[in-house]
Amino acid sequence: MLPTIQNGQRIKIVGLDSQSRGKLVRGDIVAFWFPKDRSKYYIKRIVALPGDTIEIQKGEVQVNGIKLSEPYVAPKFNVSVRSYAPVTVPPGTYYVLGDNRDNSSDSRLWGFVPAELVYAKVDL
Q1: pLDDT (average), residues 47-54
Q2: How remote is the C-alpha of 92 from its chain's centroid?
């Protein structure tokens, strides 16, 4: 999550239940159990909510056809100009990306995060 969260930085997390999960918004940083191996957890930023259509064109994220303003992504961590076809986020899931886009394992690689796996919100 560089540059937002530095390696070794202590962070505060706020636990979530099913009601508070429903209040998450685009841009929130969350902790969740990895969908492919629930013994691991990840911390990523929500960039698309259920029902949103997300597309990445030449490294720029578009949500519902509008370029997402991402001041938290440093250009030096986002030099890849790779594109990803549009996908619509299914109900009950989120599309998450790391701020260090060039070195992030995220929804681009392994898909959507089911809401029930999101257990906390990062409070910076």
Answers
A1: 98
A2: 15
